[in-house]
Amino acid sequence: MPSRITDQHAAMPGDEEPPIILQRLTDNPPSAYDDASAVVAPKVKRPPARRLTQQEINGLRGRETEYKVRDGAVPGFYIVVSPRGTLSWMVMLSIRKPGGGSQQRSVTFARTDEMTLAQARREAERLKIAARQGIDPKAPKTPVKPQLTVRGLIDRYLEQRIDLGRSAGTLRQYRALATSIISKWGDRDANSLTKDEINEFIWAISRKRQRAYSPAPDSRPLAHSDNTLSFLKALYKEGYGRSWVKHNPALQVPRLLQKPGKRHRVLTREELISVWAGCETLGYPCGPMFQLSLLSSARMGEVAKMEWREIDFAAATWVLPDSTIPAATEERLKNDSTHVVYLSPQALAILRKLRDGPDYVDERWVFTINSRKPVGDWQGASVRLRELMEKDIGPTPRWLPHDLRRSSAAWMRRLHPRVDRWVIELCLNHSVMTSEHRHLQLSDVADTYIIEEQEDYAAEKKDAWKRLGAFIDDLVHGRDAARHLTSGQAA
C-alpha cells in the first residue's frame, strides 16, 4: 500500500530507521506517531444517494427504532420512518445567524400522505433557501398586525356614504347590517376573507328563523341574509375600486333569494272589504294600523311610530317631521323631508275612537303595547289577517302589509275624476317633479335649482285623500262605491 514519510522523520546517520506511518486520508494531518502495528486503512467515501422513487417510498416499513432514508435529489433531504410505519418528510437546515456562523436544525414539515414527493422536494429547497437567509421555520411567529381590518374597511365605507349625502335612515340600516359582520370578523385582515367563509356566514344567518310561521321565501332571516350579502358586496366593491383591498371575496357569492323584482300586488274590491273586516276582528293595535295605512298611503313603519303630538284634529293633518327638526324623536322618512298627510274623515274617526276609547293607553304613542315604545312587529298580525281573509272569501294571492300602501295609490288613480299621477306621488311622499317641470323637460342639473314646495299642492292632495276615504267607506259598508270610480274600473 502506498505510504509516505514525513520530513521530520527523515533518516539520519547513526539512527535507526524510523517507522513508516500511513497518513489518514482525511483533511487533517496526523498529530502523533502511531504504533507500527496500528496501520489505518484509508476511509472509503460513501457513494452518492440515489433519487428515491414513489414505489420505493411505498415499500418502506416500520422497524423497532426510527430510521431515515436519504433522497439524493436535495442535499439533506430525508424520509423519516417511525416504528409504527408513519412516513414524514424531513430536511436538515443550516440556519445563518445574524452575528455570523450557522445553526444546524432538522425540520419535519409534512407526512408523505399530505405532500407528494415532488412537492416535498420543492418545499425542502424553499426551506433551505430561507435558512440561508436566516429564517428559522421553527422560530415562534409574531402575529403581523393587519394593515386594514374589516372594521376599518367598514368605517371607511360609511365615511364615504356620509360624504355622498346618504340619509340618516340609510346609514342606520348600514350600521345594523355591519354589526354582525364586525362581531364575526372585526379584527380580521380585510384581505384575508374568502368566498367560502362568506358563504358559510350568509347561510348561517338564513337558518336563524325568528318565526316558525314565517313562510319561505318571504321569511325575514332569508331577507336579512341577502341584505347582509348585498352590504358585503357593496363594501368590497368600493374597497377594491379604491385599492383599499386586493380582491372582492363576495363578488361571486350567490343570493339565497332571487333578487326581488317590482311588486304589482293590488288588493281587489272584494279583498279590501275582507281586509277591513279582518282588521276589525284583529283589534288594537295592528287592526287600526292596517286601516290607517290604507287610508293615508303611508308606510307601515311610519304609521306604527305615529305620535299623538303629530296629529292636529282641528286641521285634520298628520305631520311626519324631518329628522333634522328638534321635535322629531327619530328619522323614519325615506327622503328626509317633512311630510303632511291630510286626514280624511274616515281616518280621523279611527284616531278619535282610539283617543276617546278604552284602547287609549299612552299619551305619546298612538300604537303601543307596553306604553314604553311603539309597536315594532306586525308580521304576525298580517299572517293572522290573511288567515281571516281565507276563511271569509277563500284562498287569495299572497299579499304583504306594504301592498296596502300600493293598493291605496292604485285605487286613488282609479277615482273619478282621475287624480294626477304626480299628486299621487306627493301623497306617497316620493321626490318627484311636477307636471309643469316635466313639460319644461329640465335637465337633472337644472332641476336641482328648483325648490319644490309641496304645500302649494295641499288642495290637490287633500282632495285625493278625501275621495279615497269616501270610496273605501262606501265599499266596506256595502254602499255604491262604483260611483267614485272612472268607467271600466268597477272591478
Structure notes:
This protein is of the alpha+beta class. It folds into four domains: 1-45, no CATH class; 54-132, Integrase, DNA-binding domain (Double Stranded RNA Binding Domain, 2-Layer Sandwich); 150-241, DNA polymerase, domain 1, CATH 1.10.150; 269-484, Intergrase catalytic core (hpI Integrase, Chain A), CATH 1.10.443.10. It contains 16 helices and seven strands. A hairpin with a 4-residue loop joins strand 5 and strand 6 (317-320). Helix 5 runs antiparallel to helix 6. The chain is elongated. It starts with 53 loop residues before the first helix and ends in a 15-residue tail after the last helix. Residues 1-28, 30-37, 210-218, 324-329 and 434-454 have low confidence and may be disordered.
Gross geometry: elongated
The portion of residues assigned to helices is 25-40%
> What structural class do you assign from the helix and strand content?
alpha+beta
Rounded to the nearest angstrom, the distance between the terminal CA atoms is 123 Å
Number of helices: 16
Query: What CATH architecture label of the largest domain applies?
Result: Orthogonal Bundle
The helix/strand order is: HEEEEHHHHHHHHEEEHHHHHHH
Biggest beta sheet summary: 4 strands, antiparallel
- The count of DSSP E runs of length 2 or more, i.e. the number of strands, is 7
Mean pLDDT rating = 81
- What is the domain tally? 4
Please report the first level of CATH classification, the CATH class of the largest domain.
Answer: Mainly Alpha
Say what the CATH topology of the largest domain is: hpI Integrase, Chain A
Give the DSSP E fraction (strand runs of 2 or more residues). Answer: 5-15%
Q: Could you list the spans in which at least 5 consecutive residues all have pLDDT below 50?
A: 1-28, 30-37, 210-218, 324-329, 434-454
Radius of gyration based on Cα positions: 42 Å
Give the CATH H-level superfamily of the largest domain: Intergrase catalytic core
Strand order of the largest sheet: 1-2-3-4
